[in-house]
Amino acid sequence: TARQQAIQTIATTTYQLNRIVFKDKTLKELFGANVFGEAEQKARLPKPIFKALQKTIKLGAQLTDPNLADAVASAMKDWAIEHGATHYTHLFQPLTGLTAEKHDSFLSPNSDGSAMSEFSGKELVKGEPDASSFPSGGLRATFEARGYTGWDPTSPAYIRETPNGATLVIPTVFVSWTGEALDKKTPLLRSMEALSPQALRILKLFGNDEAKKVITTVGPEQEYFLIDKNFYYARPDLINCGRTLFGAKPPKGQELEDQYFGTIPERVIACMADCEMEMFKLGIPVKTRHNEVAPSQYEIAPIFEDSNLATDHNQLTMDVMRRTAETYGLVCLLHEKPFAGINGSGKHNNWSMSTDAGENLLNPGDNPHDNAQFLVFCVAVIRAVAKYPELLRVTVASAGNDHRLGANEAPPAIISIFLGDQLQDVMDQLEASNLKSTKQGGHMEVGVSVLPKLPRDAGDRNRTSPFAFTGNKFEFRAVGSSFSIGGPNVVLNTIVAESLDFIATKLEADVKAGKSLNKAIQDLLPGILKESKKVIFNGNGYSEEWQVEAAKRGLPNMKNSVDSFPSIISKASIELFGKYKVLTEKELHARYEIFSEKYVKEIAIEANMMVHMAKTMIVPAALRYQAEVAASVNATKAAGVDVSTQMEHLKSLANAISKFQTLTGDLKSAADHHAAGDAYGHAKYMKETVVSKMEELRKLGDGLEDMVADDLWPLPTYREMLFIK
Ligand code: ADP
Ligand code: MG
């Protein structure tokens, strides 16, 4: 069987593991070597152009100088060609959640038959990839299908090296000819622009007139699986769906907890080092690597950056990992739930706000003034999450993530906030507006008291909360491992912008009316906390009690994605995103359509793949085994031996096969049925009818795996894929 061949190949192949030697080139030399970053720009651009470009990058100033694009393009091209690039591409992030690109060469033929290389400002700034096949959710019909890419100077261009040449990659937005966002980057940039002025209003109240811009910062921790490529090729479900649709529970799973933070296998370390080398060259500040809880599961985490760059870098990280793994005979699985019964993969979106001078606004300070400012920003976030939990929920909705959220795994589908004992104590006192001593002793009064030292997140402590305060940032843990973090951060930035706006408006009015700022804060925050505290939960998010308690508090608990999609086009959503000019009603509707459609397609592919595997792999193996058993029973009976036990075995096998075949037929007709109505109606149908049939069929298929003779079973098993390294 393909399965036996896979094991044989793995056992006899040796891989070259010492490809990366950091002795030759140090990390410091490598970092950013393939990026057209500030140093390179400074060295190659005329001074005024460099200054104007930096002003745009750092402060978001409009690019007004018409010569700028040409000058930058020319310098970029020279730099790229020196690095061996032959082509350039605009890289964009369509609503599929992946990245897309179309390459053009620098080649420009001369009339005499020779050629020169060319790259103009126009080509840098705007591209017309057409790209009419990407989902647009009705934002453009095919006859007006042109989509444009536009240069995002705030995310630096870079060189992507492959063994077959290099390409200059230019990060871009992707919009329709009427300016509607067809991508993930455009709304993200808009949401950052929405938050900055509101945060600056608060800073101004605190007397900070220097800050020119507030950015949101993100550090995404990325979980993933690495398994041997030979197993992958023997599993059509992994190839086409990214997850196993069948697979019996192995005798050993993650129960021994012998994998978490354990030593990393040689081949995996070599692969990680190679990935990191690539990422360093691309200027991605990767910091941490370790084993995760499930067998063959790992995590990589970078140092945080502004949310636009962090989003681009996370897309690039996933890309580099996928490509590099292959070199080591591995496959990087980024699906949220590649294997049932063991942990799935997520992405922890660590989020904060920072001034252009680098002051982290969610860092509790050492003096009363800083503490008061911290409390205002922190309460703004709490209010935002309490007001818009549905919007956060829907940013992490997908067929894949449904196996995590709302299943028996971290975190639950209920959006709640973890504050920790100390901060909770502070908030309680603030809410009660009483000045009793804190747990640390002393008194708490806004703008007068020093906060108790808030402990930094101690790793595992509160892993069950989807949104946890971890010392100087919030960690949104419900994001799926395969997601673009663009969506979640668009929502975070916008809902917090709304909260800051609300708070700033009240405080400004009070101060104008003659109240002291501290008094105004002390008067305002308790009310906000009273209204918002329903979303705060410091207990065990996995527990049954929390489900009950959350229902009592009236918190939404949308266990599956389909239930959450309508939140995108709710009145609250349309008002919010419209007010802050992040997404128009039309753009929101497009997203609602696209997410519904994507859900339908993903489930349909999985259902059809299950049917195919059932018919062509599992049933044939089971029938062969049945024939063997039947022949053996007949022969034994003929020899005059009592076969009653074997007969029972044969009967139960035959029965299991029949049931499996019947249900396969059921699933096929359910998946083929086209539900009436729009994309959302179809998604609902898939969720209600097809998904449950898939779950049933899987149970029966896994039952057969536990019955059929091992030498006949064609699919690599869990115990092999997860443990043979
Ligand atoms: P832990 O979560 O284990 O306590 P760290 O606090 O070092 O670990 O950070 C985990 C992730 O959070 C890293 O990717 C880190 O860069 C990111 N992070 C730290 N500070 C911030 C911040 N101010 N804004 C956004 N992300 C941050
Ligand atoms: Mg963490």
Automatic annotation (TrEMBL):
GS catalytic domain residues: 184-618
Q: Name one GO molecular function term.
A: glutamine synthetase activity
Q: Which residues form the GS beta-grasp domain?
A: 86-179
Q: Which InterPro entries match?
A: Gln-synt_C, Gln_synt_N, Gln_synth/guanido_kin_cat_dom, Gln_synth_cat_dom, Gln_synth_gly_rich_site, GS_Type-3, GSIII_N
Q: Which Gene3D superfamilies match?
A: 1.20.120.1560, Glutamine synthetase/guanido kinase, catalytic domain
Q: Report the domain of life of the source organism.
A: Bacteria
One BP annotation, GO: glutamine biosynthetic process
What PANTHER family does this protein map onto?
GLUTAMINE SYNTHETASE, TYPE-3 GLUTAMINE SYNTHETASE
The family annotation for this protein states: Belongs to the glutamine synthetase family.
| Official protein name in the record | Glutamine synthetase type III
Organism listed in the record: Limnoglobus roseus
Lineage in the entry? Bacteria, Pseudomonadati, Planctomycetota, Planctomycetia, Gemmatales
